Amino acid sequence: MDKISLFNELKDNAYPGRGIVIGRSEDGKKAVTAYFIMGRSVNSRNRIFVEDGQGIRTEAFDPSKLEDPSLIIYAPVRVLGIHTVVTNGDQTDTIYDGLKHGFSLEESLVTREFEPDAPNYTPRISGLMTVVDGSYEYQMSILKSADGDPSTCYRYTYSYPNPLNGEGRFIHTYMHDGNPLPSFTGEPKRVEISGDIDTFTKNVWESLNEENKVSLFVRYIDVETGDFETRIINKNQ
To answer: Residue 70, exposed/middle/buried by CB under 10 A (0-12, 13-18, 19+)?
Structure first.
């Protein structure tokens, strides 16, 4: 698989939905992740990211306009010791609880499947980063319907031990805009990771479709110490 520009990939897609990027900085010193949300409806666009302990959660920007909190209000990022969990839904909590009981990412998600939002059946995408004593690895998962058929759930898990410098993987919920929205297909895309946290955050945010983008979270974790820096951008301020 060829390595592609993450920024060009985003610019060329008006509606990838929600997306997770995980990888390693160019100098190899930082574990990198980004999570963004987009929206087409008033309810989906009425959101912001806020810090919650070492993680983040979504909340309504204007509570009076919140119609249905299910599927849009959740904790996208939670931290458990050496583990950072990043997902597009409340399966963050499922993975977090599974890790506490010694389960793997894949084992933790056995009880979950795609979102019950017919006719889209939005995939659940998840990432798990493990950083300890200079060692770094990550995994990504997607749970999706059978090309729009909700009678079965396809489950894919991808593992990336010792990630290479300056590259990562990108997975998102939809291939592009549409009705119904077509689910992501194939394995996570191999993308370039470039710049420090501020440069990377700026470039991702500016690459997202202006009309549809809602919020962006970026974190750089020091592979040696586990210390991290976080950036959050919300369209609603």
So the answer is: exposed
**How far from 116 is each of 64, 102, 119, 123, 215, CA to CA, in Å?**
25, 28, 9, 10, 23
Would you put residue 134 in left (φ > 0), alpha (ψ -120 to 50) or beta? left
Q: pTM for this one?
A: 0.98
Domain residue spans of the chain = 6-234
Say if CB 59 and CB 214 are below 8 A apart: no
For 2-37, write each residue's pLDDT tens digit: 999 999 999 999 999 999 999 999 999 999 999 999
Identify the DSSP state of 88: S
> In whole angstroms, what separates CA 36 from the centre of its chain?
6
Name every residue whose Cβ is closer than 8 Å to that of residue 172 and which is 6 or more positions away in sequence: 16, 17, 18, 19, 20, 125, 184
Please state which architecture CATH assigns to domain 6-234: 4-Layer Sandwich (3.60)
